[in-house]
Amino acid sequence: MTEHNLISSVSWPQPGTYLLAVSGGADSMVLLDLFATSDSGYRLSIAHVDHGLRSDSATDAQFVVEAAQNYELSCIVNHAQLSPHASEAAARQARYQLLAQTARQIKAVAIITAHHQDDLLETSLLNLARGTGRRGLAPMQGVTLDGMPVIRPLLAIARTQLRHYAQSHQLNWREDPTNADTTNPRNFVRHQLLPAATADWRQQYVAALDKVAALNQAIETDLSFLLDPYRATDGFRWPVAVYKTFSLTETAEVLVTAMRHMAPDHELNHRLVHELALFSQTGSPGRHRPIGSRLKLAITNQQVTLLDKNASQIG
Q1: What is the pTM of this model?
Q2: For a tag site, which of 14, 86, 159, 277 has the least CB within 10 Å?
Q3: End-to-end CA distance of the chain
Q4: Which of 148, 164, 197 marks a domain boundary?
Q5: pLDDT of res. 312
């Protein structure tokens, strides 16, 4: 792919104020260079999240600050409050929360991240192995963080193409040494599986993901329409007589859609969704089940409800 083709493959957003999430890695430095040198009228600020999980994380942060200065852009460094043994999911959630807060502070239209085609393929394959269902097969679609849209303009571009751009433009970047550990499932997919894939396989898999994403969008639209009659000011309330007609699969679909409406940034996985669907279909009246820090699922004689934890007592 020539540089012209790479630039034309970027899904450029409309002019406006944006927050660029920059880690200091090669992909995010290419993102920074592409947008900072664009003449499309973007008003940009840089955000970097220091997770504090590596001894050199402060060096990464300083590297990004200096890179932003080179482009004459402001840079906001946030420090995540994580335990030394925090999971990848916990670090991701903390990072996204801080990015959303920063984006609101600068009145950004959206957050822009450097996720690319390999990230899309890696996440889809990992989700397939985890059994996360149709949503997990076509990830990174229509994401919002606390109401703040996330834009991923590099999803049509492969990692090798971004590396070639970085090298040809003599960009500097920071390598995360943990990315070389192939005992990590994502790194195994990244360094062992994807390099063995042919260009034809990649093209066919990406085309399949596009079809799944379109199907997901149609299903989500229908589910949202079906949820409307049961929407309340504090969440969702389904009559037991209606709710008990759902199959376990239908229950899971309804609950996931409702939870995504109420808490879009809440981490969901197949096991949790299955547990919630089973609880709501078989639990006795009077039982309730907390979901994370914000939601609760409860059962009465008349209703199954999904509410904010601070909602008034149901009856």
Answers
A1: 0.85
A2: 14
A3: 62
A4: 197
A5: 54
